[in-house]
């Protein structure tokens, strides 16, 4: 599931030792199951399916998973590492924002959503990685997850519109002179580019804040997380190269380009101060 749904996350995960890698995949798969419900269902059916997913997740934490292999894998992962149930609870609340058709009025709405559906994944991965620095390191992990989710949002504006969803804050759109109607027409205007540039700059700021915590991770987790972060940030580069047209083409980072990032990531980690 990890390899099929997130090649970037999968690439980073390959740098974990086997036991940690299996736990990372279990967490990703469990999160993905909830995300797929929010993306592929609607209305009461979606809320019922999401409620079932949340109950299954809680049973996995109680050591009582059903026969589903994802539930069984998650139960093993949470019995092996101190992964907090509260992080999955926040994820559940974020996915409910999707299925209930939450309207994003301002940056506070967007930041909260990014925290709930992706930022808290940092709280899940950090215990698997092992880390020092306490809550400060977790704050960095949160920002890194938020940066990745904001990147997803900027990449997927066109695709989200097809689902009837707009994650761009209404107040920010209004300030830039961008309307829902212009989005639906797929117009890449100077005003729209300015909006994309502002949000891309925010995502890069969050990446910088998140990367500051990577040296606090233990062992090869540093390389695993840094690789995934750099590759994901590369989506912003591709979006800019395409003049911020995210209606007809999905920004991405090719496999060869991801591999070319590895020496840069290794060199940056080598030069990072040891905590």
From TrEMBL:
Pathway: Carotenoid biosynthesis; phytoene biosynthesis. Its cofactor is ATP. GO terms for biological process: carotenoid biosynthetic process. It comes from the Bacteria. PROSITE patterns: SQUALEN_PHYTOEN_SYN_2 (PS01045). The keyword Transferase applies. Keywords: Carotenoid biosynthesis, Transferase. SUPFAM superfamilies: Terpenoid synthases (SSF48576). GO terms for molecular function: geranylgeranyl diphosphate synthase activity; squalene synthase [NAD(P)H] activity. It holds the Pfam family SQS_PSY. InterPro entries: Isoprenoid_synthase_dom_sf, Squ/phyt_synthse, Squalene/phytoene_synthase_CS, Trans_IPPS_bact-type, Trans_IPPS_HH. The keyword Transferase applies. Belongs to the phytoene/squalene synthase family. This is Phytoene/squalene synthase family protein. It comes from Deinococcus koreensis.
